Amino acid sequence: MRCKHHPNREAVHFCDGCGIPLCEDCAEESRPGIYYCFQCAMFRSISEAGDTIREKKGRASEKRSKKKRKWGPFHYFVILSSAMILVLWGIILFGVPEPPGGVADFENQPRLLLFMVDSSLKRYAYYEGNRYPKRLTDLIPKYLSLGKDPDRLLQKLNYRPDPRVGYYLSFSKSVKGEMNMTITPQGITIQAPDVKGS
How far apart (Å, rounded) are the C-alpha atoms in residues 116 and 165? Predict the structure, then answer.
């Protein structure tokens, strides 16, 4: 059999792409034992180069997407720091919230007084470094507004700071038929009503 491109030469190989007979000069060996004609060798090298470029682009985009998706400690630190800075700026700009205003009838609604003082104690601890006041009068006027005679109203309550619990807050005198409540930062404890009264 003769070479396709050189009819006067004997064919020693066949193109692995198109199958034409090739002489020694026309055969391009790509791998041991595998030969291509010049045209098939060109097509093969161009397609391999294209595949290599596509693979490189694919790997590069995969790395970029991994970098975008990956959240490390630094990202969480930045978000947490930003949130804390915003909160601090809010406190600096707007300050401590005003104590609840308005006139309430604490004489006829003693429980309202008890719960209002309890919420003021919690507000005090929030803004004063998790500590509670020594006396209830320390809440006035910044954290608690009780009108003209706050001392007389606060005498209706029994307040005792406690280093372990935080504080105990209850009525000074139990009322006949009423449940006795003691409030702490952990919640409310209710005792059975005093039938005899005091």
Answer: 19
